[in-house]
């Protein structure tokens, strides 16, 4: 059976990783000279406490090719087909690391590396679909086509209290146009062609959540909706109830924005994503 690898920015819940035997390759989070692996020796609660209380603003880096090669070699004991899904190549070098790692292992191993064009929920969703298809015994070529067909249909939106973390991390992209706006305006962002892109600004957090719900309604009738928070579980619970009411047949997958994306998003981020049926 084909095996699946996803990088740590997919925020895949542990239960799903175990159910489908998904391998996670971590990105790196650095606080000064101290380096951590996302989800390995740095959990979201630990990270957000350090982010808020620490005096050093963290940075991130992609996994070394050798880390991907190590994962390939380990899985080669179980399969000769591996699919790797990564965070958008437009905002991270992770895709390139995964590609370089292919040259470091036995050429007989079939490895398909796919740039998801997304992160967070937008990476989780195609990874989950690929894992389910692999479990059913679908061929690698069929799964590759399915995943590449899914990616353009993904819709993911993120709300923030501030864009300062994105600005500090250098990932702000076209959302730079929203900097310097009126106080108490909450940005709503997405990714477009793999890059950060502004959607709108809301006057206050509550209005931003309203917009998030409306944007999910516009995805049609998806089977699943992924919702994420960083440090606001009670607020996320309210979002879950509203989306469940708006899209009653959708299964809600709850997860947490991990340290790597948290470096650039900050502790107030909330995310909702689905595969559009329209």
**How are helices and strands ordered from N to C?**
EHEEEHEHEHEHHEHEEHEHEHE
Structural class: alpha/beta
- Based on the coordinates given, report the CATH architecture of the largest domain: 3-Layer(aba) Sandwich
In oligomeric terms, what are we looking at?
A: single chain
- Taking Cα atoms only, what radius of gyration do you get, to the nearest Å? 18 Å
Count of individual helical segments: 10
- Residue fraction in strands: 25-35%
Helix content: 25-40%
Which CATH class of the largest domain applies here? Alpha Beta
Separation of termini?
Answer: 32 Å
Number of domains: 2
- Within the largest sheet, what's the order of strands? 10-9-8-13-11-12
State the low-pLDDT regions, or none.
Answer: none
Description:
The chain has 278 residues and is of the alpha/beta class. The chain is 37% helix and 26% strand. It has ten helices and 13 strands. Strand 3 and strand 4 form a beta hairpin. Helix 3 crosses helix 4, helix 5 runs antiparallel to helix 6 and helix 8 runs parallel beside helix 9. The two termini are 32 Å apart. The mean pLDDT is 94.
Produce a short descriptive summary:
This protein is of the alpha/beta class and 278 residues long.
What topology emerges from the helices and strands here?
Elements: E1 3-7, H1 14-20, E2 23-25, E3 28-31, E4 34-37, H2 44-53, E5 59-61, H3 65-75, E6 81-86, H4 94-102, E7 110-115, H5 121-135, H6 140-150, E8 154-159, H7 164-169, E9 185-192, E10 195-203, H8 205-217, E11 224-229, H9 233-246, E12 251-256, H10 259-265, E13 270-275
Parallel strand pairs: 1-2, 1-6, 6-7, 11-12
Antiparallel strand pairs: 3-4, 3-5, 8-9, 8-13, 9-10, 11-13
Helix pairs in contact: 3-4, 5-6, 8-9
